[in-house]
Amino acid sequence: MSSSTTSSTFRRAFKSVTPTPTSTDTLRDRLAAVLPHGFKFAVYHLSTPPTKTEPLCSAPPDERPDKTFGESHFLAISIDRDHDAPASLKRASPGADEAKATEPRAQVLVFAVEIFIFTTAYSTTLFVGKADSTGYLHLLKLPKGTSSPTRQVTAIFLAYLIEHRRRKNTQTIVNLFARAQSQYLFPGSVQNDGKHILDDRGLVKWWCRVLNPLMEGLRGEAWGTPKGYLLVPGLEETDTRAFVPRTATSADNWVIGHPLEKISHYVDEFDWVPPRCLIPRYPDDPKSRFRDELDEEVSKRKQGIWKWASVKNLDQFWEMMSFRQECSSGRLTGFIWLVFNPTKKDTAAQAKTTTSTSSFDAPFSSHNPPSTPPRRRVDILAQTPRSNRGSPLKQDLDGSPPRPDRRKKKDKLKRKKKKLTGPIISRPPKVKRQLRNYLLDRPTSTKYYYWPPEGRGAKVVSESEYKRDIELLLHLDFSTLDKAVGSSRRWISQAGVGADEWGASVLGKAKTQGNLFGSVSSGNQGAVVTNLTGLVRRKRPSQETGQSTAGSNESGPISINVLDAGLIRKKPKDKA
């Protein structure tokens, strides 16, 4: 397969489209473009509607926290236990397909990933919670040299959610932390010999290779110039640079450090922001747990919760993170961010936006690492651009007279209820003939989130039902193939209760996958892979001994040396 064909396949899978309700580029089509050619897969996409949740970052003193909405997305991939040969290699026999169609095929889960989406009026954040595989992908019997499609599936799913959550004048952020474990989502899968478990260094490199094509595929006028950030607590910049993929544009795309000041709108509004207000709180996140421990050691009566006793800035925070149990004792934990800033056209169209020296469009380089700005003794209330008219507490601070309460006037204007008189007419009961999902009765676009129908899962469930389905998966057993098939059947049946279309069948179309990411990560030109297999000469043993090797071209009979009887000496027996 030529490099141009591979690049076109990748661009089609990562096609940057405007998230409109009329878009026909579905997740199923994109996954088919990167899955192995001729093999069948089943895709299960579970999601929740935007629900108001706790803010990621704490607000500065005397400020209201950002109104935040959260979504949960879970994608699972399964294959047939008794997988047939690819469709191009099978021989058609009359009546065989009809007989097999009536028999239900046993499915086994092979890969799953969980992503959380947090949206505010300022940004959209995608946090990768967990990603895991069962190790039963070898049942497909892929051709030798074909790479595992898990990396491509993860990148496609992330790109699909990013494109369908894009909003004007809004920053998009992808965040995750890489910490190696034997199993995350599939209990007992570590006992499967077919599962390939990466170590700490291998996992950080794997995630960098997953996210690097996103910056190439989503680059253009609609997305601007994205930036990737990598931080491994306890490692120097030169050692951390070894985890970044070696491509032509990696030096410009990746920055060694963290973008916490770049992605916080509080830095543009105030002269000094406490470090606690810059660290987001994600589920099952090491830095979030460290932040909670720092909050516990501070007395609220003395200093206030926004001032820590031991940590004064973000540099000290990350320095102390390197001594944590999750980042020390011979283990590495990598924190990775992708930042998609608003384009220049969107920024110019927003008239009320005021930028400072630490704006989002500031140049990023390794010589200019992010750091916490020095604290200045400036009145915080005077620096905020927000209006203080809506809060009665802030009206007293400003000295303005409070507004009269309008609720009392509305209560007086309410009309008195009239007494019902006359005969009572009973209403006939209405029979419920169809099941309706009331979770879909929500606005598609608001000031705080964008929820298009294309970006939703095949089944939209409530938050409680979503947690119940995930808890069920965490209590199953995938140690053996038989147990994995039974566990997969139970989860698929329970998670798909009430769904019209559950388990969409996808037929792979990618003929080769070995150079799919390498050809695009270096730019528009495809990467050339040099194969030196036929140029390596192996030393053949000398043929003077009369013995022939298994790989020799000689077709004659194999000669066997027979020793004469006189050359064998027998050990005399000792006489008792």
TrEMBL record:
InterPro entries: HAT_RTT109-like, Histone_AcTrfase_Rtt109/CBP, Rtt109. Keywords: Acetylation, DNA damage, Nucleus, Transcription, Transcription regulation, Transferase. Residues 349-359 have a biased composition (Low complexity). It is an enzyme of class 2 (transferase). It comes from Podospora pseudoanserina. Signal peptide: none annotated. The keyword Transcription regulation applies. Its main location: nucleus. Residues 1-23, 349-426, 536-558 are annotated as: Disordered. It is found in: Nucleus. This is histone acetyltransferase. Residues 543-558 have a biased composition (Polar residues). The lineage of its organism: Eukaryota, Fungi, Dikarya, Ascomycota, Pezizomycotina. Coiled coil: none annotated. It comes from the Eukaryota. It catalyses: L-lysyl-[histone] + acetyl-CoA = N(6)-acetyl-L-lysyl-[histone] + CoA + H(+). Its EC number is 2.3.1.48. Residues 405-420 have a biased composition (Basic residues).
